[in-house]
Amino acid sequence: xxxxxxxxxxxxxxxxxxxxxxxxxxxxxxxxxxxxxxxxxxxxxxxxxxxxxxxxxxxxxxxxxxxxxxxxxxxxxxxxxxxxxxxxxxxxxxxxxxxxxxxxxxxxxxxxxxxxxxxxxxxxxxxxxxxxxxxxxxxxxxxxxxxxxxxxxxxxxxxxxxxxxxxxxxxxxxxxxxxxxxxxxxxxxxxxxxxxxxxxxxxxxxxxxxxxxxxxxxxxxxxxxxxxxxxxxxxxxxxxxxxxxxxxxxxxxxxxxxxxxxxxxxxxxxxxxxxxxxxxxxxxxxxxxxxxxxxxxxxxxxxxxxxxxxxxxxxxxxxxxxxxxxxxxxxxxxxxxxxxxxxxxxxxxxxxxxxxxxxxxxxxxxxxxxxxxxxxxxxxxxxxxxxxxxxxxxxxxxxxxxxxxxxxxxxxxxxxxxxxxxxxxxxxxxxxxxxxxxxxxxxxxxxxxxxxxxxxxxxxxxxxxxxxxxxxxxxxxxxxxxxxxxxxxxxxxxxxxxxxxxxxxxxxxxxxxxxxxxxxxxxxxxxxxxxxxxxxxxxxxxxxxxxxxxxxxxxxxxxxxxxxxxxxxxxxxxxxxxxxxxxxxxxxxxxxxxxxxxxxxxxxxxxxxxxxxxxxxxxxxxxxxxxxxxxxxxxxxxx
Length: 639
Description:
This protein has about 650 residues and is an alpha+beta fold. About 40% of the residues lie in helices and about 15% in strands.
């Protein structure tokens, strides 16, 4: 009894800790995790109070919009608070379910949920996966408490949160058949009936849900690897949580198989829920997105990891089963307190070592913010602006659903641009406009009724993104607009640069690995072989004002280069700490031919000083044979 009370207190302590800790991190984040769909969901929720028809926007997900809209009135941070509140309830019901399963360490549920890397990231967004995770967990809790009717009614609203729910309905139908709850199945239509009635009064169409539904991914033909999501388990669950999940998965499966072998007349308590609902839902969601990422001929999801966020609470229930081993294996039992503290600490630390942290403005947000700064010079209240990037109305603080002043790019008739009102502004971006908007920039450039006002490009060409701002004008003017490069600090002048070239023909005692066996220009090149993993290090100082670097060279591979990199390493010579490290892999080449390679890196908010040192070198990690010639390094300085 005392142990149960202690575990209950531990749960609430860990829940409060997780909530407050994540809240502080995300409130102080410079940017949101997702600058596409997440921001679009936020905009729909925010402006649904001004344009009530947005509540019925099926892409925006009506139930999500209804619940999140009060929080959206307080901006993107308000949406983040909504996500955290949803996660608190998700953790509570996951804990209650774990107690139903008699899992002794159920109090660890908040840690496993909040700090799974992808879940932690999506909390800082306006995405719908967090709410869908709660719907699944709450449905499971109702089923475990034999509240079948309420479970069916609740899940009937799930398609108005996430589309994956359509594939889970068959699982629940099978479950109700096993439970002989046939009369419950028709209640799966409750949500559809209610929203159909509500929508009828606006659309005057009882089939509006069908007629107004949307297609996804039609403009993204590219496909990824079949094992993409398996390979990304570290960024989804985290390494340690991934091990716990696999251990728990095997534990549950072993218990179920053991029970079947005994040929017991009754199924072990909650086995149906574990196998059909938990395993089944995880398998369904995982399989759907694996196929969408890999299979040709169907819509693509671009391999985005955030789609698996909704099954993180279910995965936490599986991971909690792994902790039961602490009371079974004698050697672990003796040090289980230490193990629990160590595991919890490592899991909490996981998200802070991932690609998305710290939450910084993306290349697109940086360029869009600069575009918005330029557009703010116009009186936008008296102009029509055509755009598609979701970040733009956030940066400009304008209503994107005000049809008198805002037009989305996909509504633009590119063949009749000359019929637009004079002074109409068009903001073309290289991400959304050519894909979802289906508007190639060449079409706008060739239209004589449009004049190019500004052209902004992200400074780091490794992450290309640009915007072109046009104005509808019949005046014959030529502004001769040149691209302006944008970094986090604003417009950057790239006219202040220095170039270092090496063709290796000038004999230098500091240059090693010189060879006359192959060369592109002159007689010499650098040779790398199975005998040398490392070679020359090209070192530079006085880099305190460095903002960008471009590295170009030619290489001829004799062997297939599996692990060969050009390294850019900047460190502080005082404490020898690394300030910047980039490893660019040599790829997309032809064997026994000279290939061209180029990489660019920009440095934001750098802390370079007079003691900083830049090293550039080749890392022949796999010890293969290749030659390097005509190395050219361009340094761009802020002043």
